[in-house]
Amino acid sequence: MRDAHRMKEKFDVSLDNRQIVSLLIAGIVVMGAVFVLGVVVGKKLSGDAQTAAAPDLLSALDANAQVLHEARQEPALTFPDELTRKTSAEPLPPLPAPKPAAKPEP
């Protein structure tokens, strides 16, 4: 254990200009590869057959907007016409008599 101080020596890292330039070029190549992979995945260019046959999305959105607009339209109010309409002279038929409820068996 008398050589313990030698085991704790610091390592000096020294790079010359050639090694620094090589590391920079390798870093640029790696970042470029990551960028290209991101673009390929982002545009789904990995050979997806479903994207090649995609429908016209703008037409589908227009059709959905038209249906939604028609659904939100309020129907015309008919109560003034119904209230002021003249009724026929014949009376309404009488309502049927209600049936008695059956008693459950004990």
Automatic annotation (TrEMBL):
Which residue intervals are annotated with compositional bias (Pro residues) in the record? 91-106
Cite the residue spans of the region called Disordered: 72-106
TM ranges: 20-41
Write out the entry's keywords from A to Z.
Membrane, Transmembrane, Transmembrane helix
Protein name listed in UniProt: SPOR domain-containing protein
Q: Which organism is it from?
A: Corallococcus llansteffanensis
